[in-house]
From TrEMBL:
Signal sequence segment: none
Organism: Cyclostephanos tholiformis
Residue ranges annotated for the Ribosomal protein eL8/eL30/eS12/Gadd45 domain, each copy included: 17-108
Domain of life: Eukaryota
Coiled coil: none
Record InterPro entries: Ribosomal_eL30-like_sf, Ribosomal_eL8/eL30/eS12/Gad45, SECISBP2
Protein name as annotated: Ribosomal protein eL8/eL30/eS12/Gadd45 domain-containing protein
SUPFAM superfamilies reported in the protein's UniProt record: L30e-like (SSF55315)
Biological classification of the source: Eukaryota, Sar, Stramenopiles, Ochrophyta, Bacillariophyta
A UniProt-annotated Pfam family: Ribosomal_L7Ae
């Protein structure tokens, strides 16, 4: 369900770039810095982290910072897919470690179900 939602949001985000009439809004942000910035700006509504991040030691402090920001902002955090599958769900050929969902329009049902599964009302 998560990869379905991410691929749909990415498709809609890409479509809004091409369509002159569509309101160009970011639905998804990727990367440690972008997600942290989005959380601080109160734009991110859900954080998705890869579940195989503990293999690398260098990014632990940045990940902890994002987790702390998410806890303070009372945001749901999902540890579901690995880095490769997360990137693939977004239609990217690169590995993605962190994704922030800013706008769930177009995939709102899956968003609500995932929030409920994590334990957020």
């Amino acid at each position: 369900m998560l990869s379905e939602m991410l691929s749909e949001l990415m498709r809609l985000q890409e479509r809004s770039k091409d369509d002159k009439n569509a309101r160009a809004r970011r639905r998804i942000v990727m990367g440690l810095r972008e997600v942290a910035r989005g959380i601080r700006a109160h734009k991110v509504k859900m954080v998705v982290m890869a579940n195989n991040l503990d293999e690398y030691g260098a990014i632990d402090s940045k990940l902890q910072k994002i987790l702390d920001l998410a806890r303070v902002g009372e945001l749901p955090v999902l540890f579901e897919l690995n880095k490769r599958k997360l990137g693939k769900a977004l239609g990217k050929s690169i590995k993605v470690s962190v994704v922030g969902i800013q706008n769930a329009d177009g995939a709102h049902e899956q968003f609500k179900k995932l929030k409920k599964m994590v334990g957020f009302p």
